[in-house]
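Schema walkthrough. Field components (list of strings):
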Amino acid sequence: MTTSIHSQDSFWQGVKDCIPTLLGYISIGLAFGVVGSASGLSIFEIALLTILVYAGSAQFIFCALLLTNGPATAIIVTIFVVNLRHLLMSLTIAPHFTQYSLLRNIGFGTLLTDETFGVAVTKHMQTGKLSGKWMDGLNITAYSFWILSCVIGAFLGKWVATPEKWGLDFALTAMFIALLILQLSSVNKSKIMHYLSLIGYMALIMYGLSYIVPSHVAVLLATVIVATIGVVTDK
Amino acid sequence: MTTSYMIWLIIGCALVTWLPRVIPFIFVRSIQLPAVMLKWLSYIPICILSALVIENLLDTESQSFVTLDWPIFLTFIPTVIIALLTKSLSITVITGVMIMALVRFFV
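Field assembly_structure (string):
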């Protein structure tokens, strides 16, 4: 029993728990590399963007804005808004790591993504805790595969066929669906109706907001609104 | 080839994506979050995950009004069922991708 608890916390368990997300990282990373080179970025620039920004949606938007010759300030502000949701994710995860050093906490935050966040909150729901070593295993695996995939995509450039044709663009959506179902299935039975009603509100609010703001802003606003509805309607 | 403008632009983008990620990790250490805030944060995972799923289900571009993205929605339904039945991340992702490829092939 002791060994199984220990192994659940280990670096290698983190690596293992990252594996289901890798198809998402690899397919989106390859696609980004291809799009980046098609947008006129050099392999060095693609690698630099991938290593320093490390956020799929932001990197795609960077290319799109670069192609439309957007001013630097517009690019930076847009990227900031697109990734502001990480503030909420980081706020959710950070309280579990207060016993670790400042430097390690900066490390956990630096490598936080939608996917690692989803895997971490699911792990926390299932085991009731999160360990630093496990988080490092998860984060470093995801980060390495993302960089590798983006750079390989950049090399493949125009030779790779459209990843959409093979359904690979759905890998991320499928992963979010699975993470959502895993979250819901670990929710207390008495609260399940409350959570389902929140998802209903989410659908309505996302739909409404989609008319007014870009979808990445809608995700951010809808999350803030629905989490507030959650607190207000909580019994 | 790479201009210094491009390097600074990438560094600027890196900075604005890095700060929201690390700031909570730096400050949560020294302050105790109020109970209502923690309660609010407990809803964030389900909210963000459902928002990201719904974002992908909506087609905001091809028509003047927002509709469901039908190929994605057709794939979404069986993927949810598979996720419910298997509770497995890997199986859901792999079958989801295969169903999407099939849907794209036929639709």
